[in-house]
Design a protein that fits this description.
Elements: E1 7-11, E2 14-20, H1 23-36, E3 40-46, E4 49-50, H2 53-58, E5 68-74, H3 76-106, H4 110-135, H5 151-170, H6 174-211
Parallel strand pairs: 1-5
Antiparallel strand pairs: 1-2, 3-4, 3-5
Length: 212
């Protein structure tokens, strides 16, 4: 008679003392333990192989067998700090795409320029959704009105900058598009990067006060 496999559940690299017979059971137990500790699961791995978002959403993990189910977690403030840092890195990456697009336009490589432009815009859409709309508002949950000044102004500047790009594309004004990408948008990018840096400072200060 074949013995039923027991899975170990690791949380943040440590043996949780929990066990399960199936991956769904392991995930439920592990997530409950993490949630009880006031933390948030940010990565799940089966025998060292991380599960991606698609596997988690389509339930592909349910039939997978594993010896260990490992979860990495962050405290809410740690997750905010990580999100702001990722946001700043993504802003830098988007600006590099825009700069490359501008240079390609100037050298007559319009088709390649549009590809670079698309990559940059896609990054900004992701930043807007995950950082500006989801992470930044959570600063208010820390207590008091601690959101750094300038949020509304930066939002307006970003909308105006993206609108100028859209207008230039629709009118086939490639010279204007190149100027907007190379000379105007960097100011918008720098403003948002600085703002997210201030957001990180607020979260760090709050964490230090809680630790005292």
């Amino acid at each position: 008679m074949q013995m039923e496999r027991i899975m170990r559940i690791l949380i943040d690299g440590n043996d949780s003392g929990l066990t399960a017979r199936t991956v769904p059971e392991a995930l439920e137990q592990g997530m409950n333990a993490v949630d009880s500790a006031g933390r948030i699961v940010v990565e799940i791995a089966l025998d060292g192989t991380p599960l991606d978002a698609e596997q988690l959403s389509n339930g592909a993990y349910e039939t997978i067998s594993a010896e260990t189910v490992a979860m990495m977690s962050l405290a809410p403030n740690e997750l905010l700090l990580a999100t702001f840092e990722l946001g700043r890195n993504a802003i830098d990456a988007a600006q590099k795409h825009f700069h490359s697009a501008a240079e390609m336009i100037q050298s007559g490589q319009d088709e390649n320029a549009m590809k670079e432009l698309h990559e940059g815009i896609e990054l900004w859409c992701t930043i807007d959704q995950t950082v500006f709309q989801e992470a930044v508002p959570k600063i208010a949950d820390l207590g008091g009105d601690q959101t750094p000044d300038g949020l509304e102004r930066h939002v307006k500047e970003l909308k105006a900058a993206l609108e100028s790009i859209k207008t230039a594309i629709e009118s086939s004004d490639f010279a204007g598009l190149s100027d907007a990408l190379m000379y105007e948008f960097p100011e918008t990018s720098a403003g948002w990067s600085t703002f997210l840096g201030h957001c990180s400072q607020v979260v760090t200060s709050h964490s230090e006060l809680k630790a005292e």
